[in-house]
Amino acid sequence: MSCTGELSCPLFSTAVETEDRDLTLSDYEGATARWCPGCGDHSILAAVEKLLVTEQLRPEQTVFVSGIGCSSRFPHYLKTYGFHGLHGRALPVATGVKLHRPDLTVFVVMGDGDCTSIGAGHWVHAIRYNMKMVALLLDNAIYGLTKNQTSPTTPQGHPSNTQPRGSWLPALDPIALMLGVTNASFVAQTAEWVPAHLAATLRAAHRHDGLAFVRILQRCPVFTPGIYQLAVQKPDMIELLVHDDGVTVPELERSYRNRRVHDPADLDAARQLAAPGDCVRLGVFYRNEARARYDVIRRVPERTATERVALLETELDKYAL
Ligand code: SF4
Ligand code: MG
To answer: What are the C-alpha distances in Å from 28 to residues 34, 45, 48, 111, 210?
Structure first.
């Protein structure tokens, strides 16, 4: 990939040279991933790379934005553009990128501490703003990077360094919460140990016309090795939500026999399915492409790179001594 933009910064370049050939995995692979052996983040990275290849998303037109956490190292491992930002602030950064460069494909990668605790305010409002992007919550139910603190999604009773006798409160349910946010347009859940389902869900999310929120159940063999173990070992504990407007994966029919036809247009049914139960549900809970999109309503006027630089300099001049 070469860049002939007027400026070297990808967010301002206007004349990016794209090569006229099919892109392959090597066009996307960045640094070697340094997650622990057996970490579920490895399979999520592989699924995302597969999506980039199958959808032929140009690296110079794609941005991965993350906050802080194990999963937030994602941008380093891809040859797209990336922004590894502040804890809990991935969604505001992604919102700014998308608002000013609607031509870019934007992915947001967050952990459970990142998204559902310090970033919870941003999370709710980004869902309501419904700007076209894919927001991934890689949920290992613990703060992993900072070595084992209870997060909002830690199961009740699970011990950690901050609550050694076990998490005191019931875990926050990200799917139920998102289904309660006004103007939410795509809410799905998948699991990194079911790669075919993960791939199909990522594809559906990418093609959704609005903000697609996907919670990915992610194993952390270091700090929460047991929390998804039963569901991994016993596929009958998983119920797949299937529908032509959601996700259907025919090759999973033999191993995952619990299937439920669920129309993602039915919000009431989605909320009932999100209620706590004996099984883990994977699929698209809700989808509505008629929801209002802030990035369509408040489209930022197109500007040349020179005009953008002039605007930036005007702003910076206000603070010059
Ligand atoms: Fe993955 Fe857990 Fe290791 Fe973090 S601590 S890299 S989440 S296995
Ligand atoms: Mg976590």
So the answer is: 17, 11, 10, 22, 24
Ligand 1 atom closest to residue 223's alpha carbon, by position in its atom list: 2
Q: What is the pLDDT of residues 177-197, one digit of tens each?
A: 999 999 999 999 999 999 999
Rounded to whole angstroms, the Cα distance separating 137 from 72 reads 10
By three-state DSSP, how is residue 100 classified? Answer: helix
Ligand 1 atom 7: the closest Cα is on which residue? 220
Asked if residues 127 and 288 have their Cβ atoms less than 8 Å apart, the reply is no
Task: Please give the single-letter amino acid code of residue 313.
Answer: E
Compute the distance between CA of residue 194 and CA of residue 281 in angstroms, rounded to an integer.
Answer: 12
Overall average pLDDT of the 256-264 stretch: 97
Residue 210 is classified by DSSP as: S
Measured in Å, residue 39 CA sits from the centre of ligand 1 at 5
- Enter the DSSP assignment of 73: G
